[in-house]
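Dear support,

I submitted the protein below through the web form. The confirmation email said the job was done, but the results page showed an empty box. After a refresh the structure appeared. I'm attaching both so you can tell me whether what I see now is the final result or a partial one.
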Amino acid sequence: MRRAALRLAAAAVLAILLSFVLALARHDVSLGTDWRTADRTSRGIAPAPETTPEAVVQVYAARAVRWRGLFAVHTWLAVKPENAEAYTVHHVVGWNVRRGRPVVVSLSDVPDRSWYGNAPELLNDLRGPEAEGLIPRIQRAVESYPYPHTYRAWPGPNSNTFVAWVGREVPELRLNLPPTAIGKDYLPRAWVHRAPSGRGVQVSLFGLLGATVAPMEGLELNLLGLNLGIDALVPALKLPAVGRLGFSRSPAGPGGG
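What the results page shows now:
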């Protein structure tokens, strides 16, 4: 039993080390970007409000700023009620702590901006009556976030803790955060909760050690905030730093999952 446990631990450490090597070999993270001049333009993913009267709810992820992008992504939500002229973007920004402001920011903004040079990935895309019905509930979840004045890049609470909180409060979002969303496993007020997707179960000790078993997340192990796992329904490995290796899941929404 002890030998098997040691082998498992060694395999996990090896997988983590290989993940960081693979992440360093990638070229999709802007490590040396000056945030003051970094690209913040739209990537043309979100439908334009002037040509899309229906309600829209979207969730995005992009690699974090500079060196943090090797390890983690930043996630956010964007909502547009029916016939609204603009999107409202909800997310957490850590630099507000230094200014004595709440970390949760909800502003009218471009939903699909690059995150300081790093391209966003669409995670969820809900439209029409389904989206319209969720927008008030998303707003309530945003307002009830339990850490409005606290931010820790590791192990949380951070931007991914916030989006995971909204997912648990509004399970109809069917939120499936990537393994690089460090902080998503930081559970407010409990050690056991449902997974961010709203289904399955998650056990976590302050975001540092735990596991998730759920239809959308598959099996994930959290070691010191780093995620390793496997998705059996849409076959893929989940690795720290790298993210998902295998078949891609479509964004949750009409025809997605």
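Response: this is the final, complete result; the empty box was a page-load delay. The chain has a mean pLDDT of 88.
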